[in-house]
Structure prediction request, 518 residues.
Amino acid sequence: MKNKTFSLKAQQINIKTGNGFQVWLNESEAFKFGITAVDDVILSYEKNAKHKNIVVNVDLTNDFLDSWEIWITQDIFEKHDIKTWDIVSISTINKNPLSLEAIKKKLFWKKLNKNEIKALMRDMTDGKISDLLVAYYAACSFAYPSNKDELFWTAKYSAEMWDMIKFKYDTAVKYSIGGVPGNETTMIIVPILGSLGISSSKTFSRAITSPAATGECVEVLMDTEFSVREMKKLVTKNLSCLANGESLKFAPANDKIIKVSYPLYMEAYSKVAISIMAKIYAWGTKYCLIDLPVGKNGKIKDKKTANRIAGHFKYIWEKLGMKVFVEMSNADHPVGRGIWAVLQTREALRILQNKDVFSKDIKEKSLKLSADLIELVGLAKWKKAIDLAEKQLKSGAAWEYMKKIIKAQNLVHNKKPDYKTISYLWIIDSEELPLAKFSEKIIAKKSGKIKSINVKLLKDLTRLFWAPFDKQAWIYFNKLHWESVKKWDILCELYSNNQEDLERWLEILKKEKLFFYS
Prediction:
């Protein structure tokens, strides 16, 4: 079926939408061309004698908007240099019928075949599937357990429908399914491996089910936004890198699923497996360690479910020809004492810089996971692998390698330290990282031993008040689970650049328990 096209005059509306591009059309005019408020369309324009197209989301109104006008957000005007009164064209998008059939089948819990999955991943990659339809597809994964073949074909085609990359070196990376506060091990593992001559090129996305992921932490020190060409140069020269996968656009169909999952603060197990395996397949990774945190406060609640998900990973990686190992860890408690970007970065730097004060659990987990990867690539086996990883930390070799990565990545776009956004701070001592302006201490009202920390409350309040806007904010635990406490001890310290948020948090703490005693 041929695309329907019509021309309109551009008007800027002073709104920025952030993710995605938005336009408004006259409802009556749009209906003539079969366009509804859940559709995406192609916006076309001429610039410097070149014809350009972008896919945009549509909203409809009959108020204040004439049939010959189109309202376009400030994001589009700025990025694409469109001017008020420019003539632009709107074209409908023809989806592959198999794509819509695949979503319909999922809604009725039916198995998808190879061709339906391929068509759906193609249309999602090309921006032909609206966020609403992607949300339908993602939601089905919670109700309908995906078949292993569906998982394999989805991972494979979501990667192959966009850029694939092959590095000069075999790369080894660690991925976690997330969901545990703290838990910043990547910033320690990558320099340990790199200092041993093991390429560890790690991409990441924004946090979905934990207060801060690797992406938010790495940005504190260095630039993470690169093109594929820039990334290949970094890896060729330095063996390793730490980069935002969203800017590289690997497996973009999965990015769309992540986008619609974020508001609900949850991901289906099958989508977690697909997302990770698609990215590492597109990234040309040969060796991969998957960290599966298991426990009442994690995404995975029990060992039986964890074994089933591990089976998903095993099936997909064997079919894709990769070597992958799954490590199960504890998700009942925060890992590390600092929670959120700057505090988690400080945790990692303290360990890399061999400070006297550091989080023992973060260090032990980082060494364990590093040793798993060292063994996976065949450099050393268990006890020797642990000793080798620990030697790289103690000798300062890992920190020297981390400084090399920081410098190389900031020089790509000549980034200068930005203390306003707390980004690109270059090589900095852990104790010089700037914390938020306001802070409050929570004091123990009785003596005893801490049995557990209310991780659900921790996650909910992180998203409610600070994440992802204030990198300096959140919480540092002076006392963790199973540690003894005396009356008047400091249990934790809260940080924020907004005094009102801090006061609201303290009010909630009067009603909700953060610490549980044995």
Remarks:
- The chain has 19 helices and 18 strands.
